[in-house]
Amino acid sequence: MTTQHMTYYHQEITQIEKTCYSNKRHLQTVIGLRHYINNNFDKELSLSLLSNIRFTSKFHLLRLFKRYYGQTPKQYHIDKRIEQAKLLLTKGAAVTETCYTLGFDSPSSFSTLFKSRVGLTPTEFQKRATFTKSVKI
């Protein structure tokens, strides 16, 4: 590729970055928040706590996170917990143990949320995962 083409593409990329990611502080805020959620998904994370951690207002944080990730911090937090629950259940952890390990209040609320997100209860999911493993072996 010629230098002229590289310059054109560099200009285009720079323009896209300015349009899509116009404020680096905003980007740093949401990336930092996402990292915090990823590292603390097993804890109760309120919007007030998250906004204090990132030194911004709750409503601004909600708008930013949704703008960049397409979901609220709470939705993202729940998705991370469900993702981890699926992993633990696949490895054979008990439903109750998984529930409390991930910071859910009760096995019934965990099961209800899990079923609404996955389409199966945790027990059904675990049975299918175990069956799938045994069929592959």
UniProtKB/TrEMBL annotation:
Keywords: DNA-binding, Transcription, Transcription regulation. The keyword Transcription applies. Residues 31-128 form the HTH araC/xylS-type domain. It comes from the Bacteria. Signal peptide: none annotated. The keyword DNA-binding applies. InterPro entries: Homeodomain-like_sf, HTH_AraC, HTH_AraC-typ_CS, Tscrpt_reg_AraC-type_HTH. Pfam families: HTH_18. Coiled coil: none annotated. SMART domains: HTH_ARAC. This is Helix-turn-helix transcriptional regulator. It comes from Pedobacter boryungensis.
